[in-house]
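stage 2 :: seqdesign
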């Protein structure tokens, strides 16, 4: 089956709403970069029946209710992952959770043998230079070999610790030196924003933009010039896990900062709340409110502001090779509101 990945990433174009969503032909499964879909390809998606493969760990009835509420572009059918056979749905659009992790290798050029002894280059030709985590909802359609849309989720620090420790990039001594730091992190390996409230908002964004034939490219900065002004009178909610500092060199938690460090140059109301409370607020969906989101896709940091009722992304900025929220991220947001 020819697949198209739907990874929730924040990309905003035109004056519609966007979320942690990419819409476009994926250039690589390990990053956020895409090329545009044609109107013909958008129409193909709308004319197909969508098969939603329910991931293990999500309650079937709950996720079905959430997606049914927001998905309007075509008919949708739900199938448990254990019952899904791709060959039976080759003429359908398919949304499936892609879950993969591994190591980036650098293959060095080799030199010929000098007698019976290999050169140093030959001995080191296969070297780990980094790790990757791929975790996104992916949309596949029959006419495309690569993903046409993606919904991305942020691995927590413990998840990043685990994958790094299983790699051979760090020496045994380096791993021993950071072992105590890792013990202090009591997180359970997982993802910060793989929760039902966030998922609802992401699929609202995906549905709306597919319906309007809008490509979303997460690497682009976007500001909804009209709606962002609402932050002058609205509280900006922020999940508490965003206060954790990740050390990319040791792949451990560095510290947990106070909100004032980041929001000192933010001139409007904000409130740091638990992930649980924020998700419940999204699922209630009674009134417009706004929350800050940090999405991490390997080395790309995406900072966005999302309308928790509509899923509309009113602001997004991507920074390469950055791993933590910073005061300058909030300062830049503050300038856009002004």
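stage 2 :: out
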């Amino acid at each position: 089956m020819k697949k198209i990945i739907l990874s929730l990433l924040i990309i905003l174009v035109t004056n519609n709403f966007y979320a942690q969503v990419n819409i476009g032909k994926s250039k690589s499964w390990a990053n956020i970069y895409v090329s545009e879909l044609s109107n013909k390809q958008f129409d193909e998606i709308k004319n197909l029946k969508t098969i939603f493969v329910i991931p293990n760990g999500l309650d079937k009835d709950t996720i079905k209710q959430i997606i049914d509420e927001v998905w309007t572009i075509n008919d949708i059918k739900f199938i448990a992952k254990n019952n899904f056979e791709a060959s039976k749905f080759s003429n359908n659009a398919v949304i499936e959770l892609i879950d993969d992790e591994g190591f980036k290798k650098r293959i060095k050029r080799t030199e010929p043998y000098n007698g019976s002894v290999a050169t140093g280059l030959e001995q080191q030709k296969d070297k780990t230079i980094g790790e990757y985590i791929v975790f996104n909802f992916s949309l596949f359609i029959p006419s495309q070999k690569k993903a046409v849309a993606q919904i991305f989720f942020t691995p927590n620090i413990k998840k990043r610790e685990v994958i790094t420790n299983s790699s051979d990039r760090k020496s045994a001594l380096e791993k021993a030196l950071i072992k105590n730091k890792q013990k202090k992190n009591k997180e359970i390996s997982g993802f910060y924003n793989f929760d039902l409230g966030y998922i609802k908002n992401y699929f609202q964004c995906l549905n709306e933009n597919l319906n309007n034939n809008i490509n979303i490219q997460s690497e682009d900065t976007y500001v909804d010039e009209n709606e962002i002004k609402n932050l002058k009178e609205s509280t900006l909610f922020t999940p508490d896990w965003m206060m954790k500092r990740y050390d990319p060199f040791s792949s451990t938690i560095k510290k947990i900062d106070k909100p004032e460090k980041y929001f000192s140059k933010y001139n409007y109301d904000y409130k740091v709340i638990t992930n649980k409370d924020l998700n419940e607020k999204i699922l209630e969906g009674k009134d417009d409110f706004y929350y800050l989101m940090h999405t991490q896709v390997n080395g790309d940091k995406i900072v966005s502001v999302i309308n928790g009722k509509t899923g509309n992304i009113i602001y997004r900025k991507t920074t390469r090779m950055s791993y933590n929220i910073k005061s300058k991220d909030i300062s830049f947001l503050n300038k856009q509101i002004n």
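stage 3 :: structure notes
- The chain is about 25% helix and 30% strand.
- The longest helix spans residues 196-211.
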